[in-house]
Amino acid sequence: MGVRTTARIVGAQLRLSCLEALAYRVGFWSDGVVGVLWGAIGVIPLLVAIEHRPDVAGWSAWELMLLSGLFMVVSGIFSGFLQPALRASMEHIRRGSLDYLLLRPVSPLVLCLVADFAPWSGLEIIAGISLCVVSLAKLGVSPSFAELGLAAAVFAAGIIALYALGIMALALSFRALRLQNLTDFMETLLDFARWPTSAFSGPLKAFFTFVIPFAVMTTRPAEGLLGRLDVSSAAVAVTTSLVLMSLAWILWRRSLRLYTSASS
Asked: pTM of the full predicted structure?
């Protein structure tokens, strides 16, 4: 399936989700505002920590704010695009109605990943980008085009890693329907991404760098914007995401063979 076809499918589903959400405008804005406030509340622990020490793991107050802005963007992408699609697809698996997706002349994985969207989470993404811009201004940092490009590449790798984890959760739901609450677990686990990986040590740091690579999602892009990221570290981050996506694809293909439809 070509990129153009995939883009058309994503665009069509996003348009339908927006129309559905705007049919209840009060709910649209209230859910969006709640998402922004929930992300802002997460900044409070950082402010408390800064009150007791000048920095956290070598990160100053506004550097942590930059990290929080990136976290809000990642959280908005997860809650707006990935989590609703996973829940809708897992419901198809639970009911045995995934046939309606498998029989279509389109990649079933693509259809599963665009099964549903929550457009109001776009407000959280906008708020996160705004916080990043304000943080950079407060720090007096103006990233060069090379630094912006490196940060963008690593951030894209982080989103790939996020989707890889989502695909793994979806694949595991074929084996045990009770694992459908994995999306809620992912949402809880994602809160660790608001802290720099240097705040962790030992096995926990390795876990959040390579297994659940929050470093690729927030820490490395923030370092890129601050001019601290070198090419070798960026290459390791991208490689980690690609390996994770490869493993997710293999797990998806194997789990798909175990699917038993309602008509079987």
From this structure: 0.86
